[in-house]
Design goal:
0% strand
């Protein structure tokens, strides 16, 4: 049975960050380059939700949009690190494929939120 993805962007990015943390915990015992790549992934993957949270308290529409733009950049970076780990064989492909798919969906949602916020700003 497939579970439904949370509709709230804050909860969805939190759940994604949790998945990233769990993946990085699995990589923690690996040596050298894998640990470094895991740290990069941990930073970008958890930053998405943190920026979404910050955006909720944005001081202006521009601040809101800026925080979402940062979240989008972090989501794109996270996809890069996940793909690199997958293709290098550092982690099981099926364990990161779901995270790559979710990061891509989050990127699309974040992009849409940014476009809509900018559109509203012009009104």
């Amino acid at each position: 049975m497939e579970t439904k993805k949370p509709r709230d962007i804050k909860e969805r990015t939190f759940q994604f960050a949790l998945g990233i943390v769990r993946l990085c915990q699995q990589m923690e015992n690996q040596s050298g380059i894998w640990r470094v790549l895991g740290k990069q992934l941990l930073r970008s993957g958890t930053s998405i939700g943190a920026n979404v949270e910050e955006a909720q308290a944005g001081q202006s529409k521009a601040d809101f949009t800026s925080k979402y733009a940062i979240a989008l950049k972090e989501a794109r970076e996270t996809i890069y690190w996940l793909r690199l780990l997958k293709e290098s064989g550092a982690v099981k492909k099926d364990s990161v494929e779901i995270l790559i798919q979710e990061a891509d969906e989050l990127s699309r949602i974040l992009g849409s939120i940014i476009v809509n916020a900018k559109r509203e700003k012009l009104k």
